[in-house]
Amino acid sequence: MTRFLVKRLFSAVLTLFAVSVLTFLMFFALPRDPVTGMCPKNCNPERLERVRDELGLNDPLITQYAGYMKGIVTGRDLGSAQGGHCDAPCLGWSYVTNEAVSDTIARVLPVTLSIVIPAAVLWLLLGVGLGMVSALRRGTWLDRLAIGFSLTGASLQLYFVGAVLLLVFVYNLRLLPVPSYTSILDNPVKWASGLVLAWVSLAFLFSAIYARLSRAQMLETLSEDFVRTARAKGLAKPKVYGRHALRAAITPVVTIAGLDVGGALGGTVITETTFGIQGLGRTAVDAVRAGDLPTIMATVLIAAVFVVLANVLVDLLYAAIDPRVRLR
Amino acid sequence: MWGSLGEREERSAAEYRSRERRQAPMSEVSVAPSAAEPLLRVRGLAKHFPVRTGFRGQSLVRAVDGLDFDVRPGETLGLVGESGCGKTTTGRMLVRLLEPTAGTIEFEGRDITHAGRRQLRPLRQDLQIIFQDPYASLNPRHTVGRIIAMPLQVNGIEPPGGVKARVQELLEIVGLNPEHYNRYPHEFSGGQRQRIGIARALALRPKLIVADEPVSALDVSIQAQVVNLLRQLQRDLELAFVFIAHDLAVVRHFCQRVAVMYLGKIVEIGDRVDIYERPQHPYTRALLSAIPDVTKLGPGGRIRLTGDVPTPLDPPSGCRFRTRCWKAQEICATEEPALVSRGGGQAIACHFPESGPVAGESGGTAGVTVEEVSK
Amino acid sequence: MSLSPVEGVALAEIESGGPEVPERKDVVGRSPGRLAWIRLRRDRTAMVSGGMLLFFMLLALAAPLIEMLYGIGPKEQFQSLLDGFGMPLGYSGGVSGDHWFGLEPGLGRDIFIRLIYGLRTSLFIAFAAAVITATLGVVLGTLAGYLGGWLDAVINWITDLTLAMPFLVIALALTPTLVLRFYGEREAVSPAFGVAVLIGVFAIFGWTSTARLVRGQVIALREREFVEAARASGAGLGHMVFRQLLPNIWAPILVSFSLAVPQFITSEAALSFIGVGLSDETPSFGRMIYRSLDYLQTDPAYVFFPGITIFALVFAFNLFGDALRDALDPKSSR
Amino acid sequence: MRPRVVAAAGGAIALVVALGACSKNTGEGTTVDTGRTQTGVIATDPKDSQGPAAEVAGASKGGTFTIIRETPISHLDPQRTYSFAGLMASPLFARYLTTWKDDGKGGLVLVGDLAETPGSDVNKDCKVWEFKIKDGVKFEDGSPITSKEIAYGIARSFDPDLTGGPTYIQEWLADTPQFDTKWDFKKNKGSLPPGLTTPDEKTLRFEFSKPRCDLPFAVSLPTTAPLPPAKDTGVNLDNKPFSSGPYKIADNQVGVKLTLDRNPNWDAKTDPVRHQYPDQFVWTFGPTPDAASNRVIADNGPDQSALAFNTVPASLVAKVAGDAALKSRTILSPTPSANQLVINNQRVKDLKIRQALNYAIDREGLIKAMGGPTVAAPLTTLMPPSTIGYKAYDAYPAGASGNLDKVKELLGGQTPELVLGVSDGATEQIQGTQLKANLERAGFKITLRNIPDDAKLDEIKKKDNPWDLYIGNWAADWPSGASILPVLYDGRTIKPEGNSNQSYFNDPAINAEMDRILAMSPAEQGPEWAKLDERIMKEYAPVVPLFVDVAYNVHGSKAGGVFISSVFGYPAFVNAYVKQ
């Protein structure tokens, strides 16, 4: 177990390292100069060059990379153009928003968390619930309804659903306020009402996938010997389904859910764009467009951390749910 | 009867001890009758699987822990024992599906213990395996023809008259309709599938076939057909077999020599008649006594072994059987008994071997019938 | 009871030795694939959705022919049929006998023929990406699963890395970077290039799920006896993979392929939503839908036609994928 | 069973989509009047520069005025402010030496803001300028604003760390584009750049080595906003500038929301243009132009007193313009932002081809493709109509949709092959598609080459860029021909990169004429620029004028006082109020 964790964490760190190096290289392969965006209209080449020098963009790649990594670990001095000293973990200074990237992240990360976590709870409950019900009530109208729902959901796209929901509930019926983010600590009601459309549309699409998955899984489990045995032994239905079948059926769901949530935490660009909420995803996309290296690095790394962590967690959960799995 | 057995046992034990002193080391022990050059010669064969236990640490499962035996051309050697005693592991090592941890395997005098795929290639033709599960051992996506032709194809052999003719010939040999060449395994019954598996093993005209519980997954009524087929093939084609089974009756029907395994060791090896009629190791006796229709034992009747098989992770010291042996003494815990030849090709690993026949009356030829079993 | 009844009875029966299955006239067996096909043929849903897919594919393939018959090309503009704000005149976004699905606002191009060409682009991208990702996934998954050991560890790590890589950043960055590498500054970037880059992006990121699936399947199969039988016969890697393993996992691969295609179709659309993807010159679903969504209120027909088409296409794929799964694996019947 | 589900789902979508409309579009009522004539003067009467500004009819105090915009304001630090959003937000919390009194209908008067007058040309040679600072002007902490703080503000604009702002004053003072090396701000803190002096607390004096007649205009940019040295937080000032205007930064969630509260130390009596009606201004960032317009149209809750800063997108124009009830909630005005099909004169040297391009252009089709008259208005001149002294003309009458006969005649049977570079952004993609089709109809062979959106501007500013045609845009910093023609068509300014002269047009006669006009007094320059404009087009046709952007913004039912700035073409907030 400890051994597994150590091994897994080592591989995770290696992954993050590789991601950071690749992103860095990717950025410098881009035919885009972050500096030109900084002085519009009448900028002259000499001045651009000085700005590049000041930002260290003329240093060798390795020096720049080492500087960035050193900043994360020990903090570093960025020079007066970038807000002076930057404490560890220093994610750098954004060329575009003119603030420490850690401030940017501190602002947009809660937004993405607020979108993804409730949505994930919703889609898991809805998806797994629907899947279970339609598996247990196989062949009934309930089952058909659930299948129809999930197939429709799986065939629709978020921007489409989002646009229609916005039009109907916000612009036409005016039942909901315009989607926006308010901290849950400031005003939980506003927080919820501002994000509910994002949750619902995410949940609709994702739960469709989970309903399909958990239904299939449940059906397979129900036909397995141990469930039949348990039923034959006279265990009550809810007990069998609840304790035995559900547990077995949910294992693959957990895997996929973990990866989905991990991925979504890295940014839900389409959702954020559709509803006009500035989260991690849009910040990342904006940063790429603007050639804002420090912000690109930070958003990419955070997204990668979520994915990698989700992977580890899924493995652990998997072992917790299914004792047959041995952690190596 | 038991009394006389006891006497013989006393004597043999003494003899055994004196021999041990003279005839160390172990590997020098001749455990096979020294007739022709053996086809297969196995010495000190062992397989240890590393497993992780608990939160940390690694330990070894000693699945097979030092086997010595020979198989002569055309001979059938039965390998019997309870589940988990290492029979199957041994079988797989013989055909090199598993890499042995220690020991040597010689085939026709060549050491093949660690031979690579390329070096093994010529040997593959002489050394084949039949699997236990007739359902899992045939590729469901291939036609019977392809399955049987696979070894030919893999080894790039173009038999005279073509692959198809050879496959049909093989189908006929194993008693299947050659016209079924193009069918798929799922269209056959278990017995027929096992015949296909046998045909595949025969495709390369091997000299030795390792048959890993070839009939245990089959219906009782079918088992007989398959075993009889194997016996006939063995006679007709002069095949040698290593026949792995937990079913003593089948082994008795099929094998000329029998090796009894317990926890990764051979405890007794000898000719069929010797093993079945004069078993000397307590474990062999216990096994034989468990056969319901060989209950014409003397006093004591059926020997019931108490306790579970110890874990191969941590086998008992000394004699591995001592924890369940009714005759265990102190020495059994401290000293591991060596496999000692007792003439006539029989060898036992026991400090206190039994002697005398188990069931004299039932000796001779096969005696078990379906009617008897169903009692 | 489990004891063998071998002796005695057996001898009597061995001569008869006949197969337990009644003789059949046809000697050619039904392969599992054929059985699945038969099951698929019997499934009405599969036939309907399969028919739809076939229809879509025919439309896509026949695009130039349709253009000829329809008489309007995908780049032709009909701005005289637009009002001052660039909105199509007439009913429902300019639907008429000449323009079956109406006109695009602004540029005034014919929606029907652009849809047909868009279908062609999107289906091509999706199929190509699905083929490449499936191939990559199968190769890597098989190697990892079959050979195991350090190779497995490395491939697993690459899988994790790929999942952790920033898809959007790379998707955004790749096109301009590659265009500079491959094209002169005054050359028009051919639409095929944009298509190729998109396929490439999908290929880089899309293979992981197939690889994981295949790896799992291969690990399960690796210990099966028929695989060992081949190994005992001295089969090499090629034979093991192509003759023994792959034929047994093509069913799940096929299913995942059939579900990957609609995913790539929608991904193409999603990417153009954030500004990655093809230029306006190449008609594609993604760009059409992305542009049309803004007109949800002012020209619903413009949203409706591409929207319903992509929905129907993806829906048909999903239905067919499900049906295929059922047919290939009767256990998991719906 | 499942096919039925398909049908049902399809039906549901159809229903939702059809919610909008099913009526016939006959194309009536889709014309818009965007005409507007510009008059601009520099105030001669000091009274014009005195506060308070005239009350706005119907205005009332209180409420929160919300401005919704897709992307955040790039810089709030006045010395770094140059974007339109920044220029429109800045007056709320920063005051300058001069500013424009704008009636929103084209009537512009340049007045003193912190200065008592829009400057005095001491020797009447445009080389020495003096500004007297008003009494009673204060920062948000109540400390007085003197010439020292204004001078400090200008000095810090020399800091190479503080990129982004306009550089006119710096370059004029240093008399070189390399102003930041000529005078190093960091090494000379406490002193002032060469030529800038503060003889006393009330006086700010500029001395230039060359005539700089446009200085009164140049100091209307935020570069001249004051800052006490003690309050200079360097790059961090960008997130919380120190206010001298009617509002101060209360809270700034960068990229999300900027909240401005009243500044109690601002005195209306000193300010000729600003008001302090709403309690609060809130800028929110994030929603796309579509979403922002939809929100404001929905007129729900706080959005009732909101303005969508981005213009109504083409996709919603039909809805907004077609809804009579919305008419009172829209503002429509042409802007000074002029768009051209820029011809790279280094590559396309044949005047006939350039003229043929001018004849070939289908302005009506292009404007339709972009969304009609509320998005763009046709332009045939180099300078936009909002320029002081503007005179309309059409050197190459192409009609609404191009004069193909003239093109044929000029081309004489040849088919010029030209490469049109367009950004891969959505708008230019449509323009590129439209222009390609248009020009190919006329007999050209056009290759479209996509350029990454963010890189396009930098690329076409490079002297040796490889394209023949590209779409260019110029919005002047003040509505004088001096900030347009010399910037865009003076060939002597061409440098390897960062060119504003993107047509790379260079003609000695024209250059000399520009020098002549520049030496005139600002008031006399107007008609001369207009004449030069026509001459350049007639004789050289260096570009194809296409259109001016039209500002078409929608606001909530309770938002009032917003008008389109005649200088910049974006909504101005100095008069904004919330209806009670």
UniProtKB/TrEMBL annotation, chain A:
One GO term of the biological process aspect: transmembrane transport
Transmembrane region(s): 9-30, 111-133, 145-171, 191-211, 296-321
The keyword Chaperone is annotated on this UniProt entry: no
Domain of life from the UniProt record: Bacteria
Gene3D superfamilies, sorted: MetI-like
Entry GO CC: plasma membrane
Residues annotated as domain ABC transmembrane type-1: 109-318
Localisation per UniProt entry: Cell membrane
Keywords per UniProt: Cell membrane, Membrane, Transmembrane, Transmembrane helix, Transport
Record SUPFAM superfamilies: MetI-like
Primary location recorded for the protein, binned into one broad class: membrane
Annotated membrane topology: Multi-pass membrane protein
Family: Belongs to the binding-protein-dependent transport system permease family.
Name the UniProt record assigns to this protein: Peptide/nickel transport system permease protein
From TrEMBL, chain B:
Classification via InterPro entries: AAA+_ATPase, ABC_transp_ATP-bind, ABC_transporter-like_ATP-bd, ABC_transporter-like_CS, Oligopep_ABC_C, P-loop_NTPase
Keywords: ATP-binding, Nucleotide-binding, Transport
Molecular function GO terms recorded: ATP binding; ATP hydrolysis activity
Segments of skewed composition (Basic and acidic residues): 1-23
Region (Disordered): 1-33
SMART domains the record matches: AAA (SM00382)
Xref: CDD domains: ABC_NikE_OppD_transporters
Keyword ATP-binding: yes
Protein's GO biological process: peptide transport; transmembrane transport
ABC transporter domain: residues covered: 40-288
PROSITE patterns recorded: ABC_TRANSPORTER_1, ABC_TRANSPORTER_2
UniProt record similarity statement: Belongs to the ABC transporter superfamily.
Classification via PANTHER family: D,D-DIPEPTIDE TRANSPORT ATP-BINDING PROTEIN DDPF-RELATED, TRANSPORT ATP-BINDING PROTEIN
Name of this protein: Peptide/nickel transport system ATP-binding protein
Annotated source species: Micromonospora avicenniae
From TrEMBL, chain C:
Compartments (UniProt record): Cell membrane
Membrane topology: Multi-pass membrane protein
GO CC term, one of those recorded: plasma membrane
One of the GO biological process terms: transmembrane transport
Every ABC transmembrane type-1 domain range: 119-321
Family annotation (InterPro entries): BP-dependent_transpt_permease (IPR050366), MetI-like (IPR000515), MetI-like_sf (IPR035906), OppC_N (IPR025966)
Record has Transmembrane helix as a keyword: yes
Record key words, sorted: Cell membrane, Membrane, Transmembrane, Transmembrane helix, Transport
Membrane-spanning segments: 46-66, 123-149, 161-183, 189-207, 301-324
Similarity field: Belongs to the binding-protein-dependent transport system permease family.
The protein's name in its UniProt record: Peptide/nickel transport system permease protein
Organism: Micromonospora avicenniae
TrEMBL record, chain D:
Gene3D superfamilies in the cross-refs: Dipeptide-binding Protein, Domain 3 (3.10.105.10), Periplasmic binding protein-like II (3.40.190.10)
Position of the signal peptide: 1-23
Coiled coil: none
Keywords (A to Z) from UniProt: Signal
The keyword Signal appears for this protein: yes
Annotated InterPro entries: Peptide/Ni-bd (IPR030678), SBP_5 (IPR039424), SBP_5_dom (IPR000914)
UniProt-recorded name of the protein: Peptide/nickel transport system substrate-binding protein
Native source species: Micromonospora avicenniae
